[in-house]
Amino acid sequence: xxxxxxxxxxxxxxxxxxxxxxxxxxxxxxxxxxxxxxxxxxxxxxxxxxxxxxxxxxxxxxxxxxxxxxxxxxxxxxxxxxxxxxxxxxxxxxxxxxxxxxxxxxxxxxxxxxxxxxxxxxxxxxxxxxxxxxxxxxxxxxxxxxxxxxxxxxxxxxxxxxxxxxxxxxxxxxxxxxxxxxxxxxxxxxxxxxxxxxxxxxxxxxxxxxxxxxxxxxxxxxxxxxxxxxxxxxxxxxxxxxxxxxxxxxxxxxxxxxxxxxxxxxxxxxxxxxxxxxxxxxxxxxxxxxxxxxxxxxxxxxxxxxxxxxxxxxxxxxxxxxxxxx
Length: 326
What we know:
With 326 residues, this protein is α/β, with parallel strands linked by helices. It has helices spanning 16-21, 62-72, 99-110, 141-158, 172-182, 203-209, 229-241, 255-264, 275-286, 292-306, 316-325; strands spanning 32-39, 45-47, 55-58, 76-81, 115-120, 134-135, 138-139, 162-165, 191-196, 245-249, 269-273, 310-313. Strands 1, 2, 3, 4, 5, 8, 9, 10, 11 and 12 form a 10-stranded mixed sheet that branches. Strands 6-7 form a two-stranded antiparallel sheet.
């Protein structure tokens, strides 16, 4: 094979237009999903201290939020709800008039074309902060499935476009698919948090969602960060159970997992650029230690380059603005 001086890779890096022409990975605003945190009350738009630029929003603030997202070209949101009260069973999660169910209705009235994805889990709604029903201080997998299925059906009935179970209970995709089909929602897709790791990068989110466990941790049901082959097994099981889209969470520290899943799976692949990943970049940029814009776009491009089709990110709004400038 010929080498230097005949071969000079720098020839294709001389200008912005030339670099764009040969660019291998394209990051687009249409790839992004923006998470929203919805609360009870009126005229609430409170910035989340651990995640600057992201807010707790009451239902009456959602139409303006939808307008902004539409103007930026962001196609979808992922809804998280903070309940009025919590109990052992997380009953507001599957209340037909719970905070997420009402948020879905408000968003679909305001912006019918906006895709509304709903997170299905019990952790924000339970008094103990775990993702399912407890038996002797351990999450009891099988009884939890019924409540997750009820939650998913209530979201679909409210108008959710995509159901996204994040609990990591075994068999929950099958239970949700069965319940949706039985209740007439066979056309509603499931985006499963298929490979969700027990990560330290969730800290700011748990403050935002008030969802930290009151005792213990979630390592008994979320994945061990040391495992890669297990992720492929989890993804495969969710596909067998009926998942339409699979997800890896977190994204930045798990680019190798995204790439492995992409090599094995033909379904659409999502990756969640989680709160800790967002907050680290924001904090370093505030200190002047890094260029926040360049670092953000580099991270999002890396997630796309690893194989993700869809990126859930708290950077979505700002990234959409920066993409317009390119």
